[in-house]
Amino acid sequence: MEILKFKAWVESEKKMLPVWQMWFPQAGASPRAMVKSPKTGKFVIGPFPIMQCTGLKDRFGKEIYEGDVIECHEGANIMDQREYDVVVVVRFGRSGYGSVVDVHGEHCGGMYFSLPYEGCMKILGNIYENPELAEKAGGL
């Protein structure tokens, strides 16, 4: 059985923290999460932005979460025989985790991640701690 993992952006800490517990106060409501403050050692509850683990790891063994900005060796482009390193924001879609890929300003379609991609991905940061990386990746 796969264990779901989440982390939350806690603005007051300016940090991404692991979620200890998460619940929905009512149907259709935003989730509430409990995180432990590294500053005080106390638990904090709030409606924080939540990121879910994809179950994949980057080439250094670090878990990849929704909202992470990653660099990926996209492979050879059949049309012009060049290889690209693309920077993308990980998002959850209908078919799983992936991203819309823009290379040199050109929309190149969707890119879905799976185990074969693990060796080529490197986490650069995330959309909360590093918003400038999200801009580099083509925006949020």
Show unreliable segments: 76-81, 100-109
Q: Provide the helix percentage.
A: under 10%
The structural class is mainly beta
Helix-strand topology string? EEEEEEEEEEEEH
CATH topology term of the largest domain:
SH3 type barrels
The second-level CATH architecture of the largest domain is Roll
What strand order characterises the main sheet? Answer: 4-3-2-1-5-6
Shape: globular
Sketch the major β-sheet: 6 strands, antiparallel
Distance between the termini: 32 Å
- Number of distinct beta strands: 12
Mean pLDDT: 77
Which strand-content bin applies to the residues? over 45%
CATH class of the largest domain: Mainly Beta
Q: How many independent structural domains? A: 2
Query: What is the overall number of helices?
Result: 1
Provide a short characterization of the protein structure.
With 140 residues, the protein is mainly beta.
How would you describe what is shown here?
The chain has one helix spanning 131-136; strands at residues 6-10, 15-23, 32-36, 43-46, 50-57, 63-65, 68-76, 83-89, 91-93, 96-103, 106-112, 121-126. The chain has two domains: 6-48; 54-136, SH3 type barrels (Roll). 4% of the residues lie in helices and 53% in strands. 19% of the residues are buried. Strands 4-3-2-1-5-6 form a six-stranded antiparallel sheet, with no helix packed on it. A three-stranded antiparallel sheet has the order 8-7-12. A three-stranded antiparallel sheet has the order 9-10-11, with no helix packed on it. A hairpin with a 6-residue loop joins strand 3 (32-36) and strand 4. The chain starts with 5 loop residues before the first strand and ends with a helix. The chain contains one helix and twelve strands, in the order ββββββββββββα. The chain is mainly beta and 140 residues long.
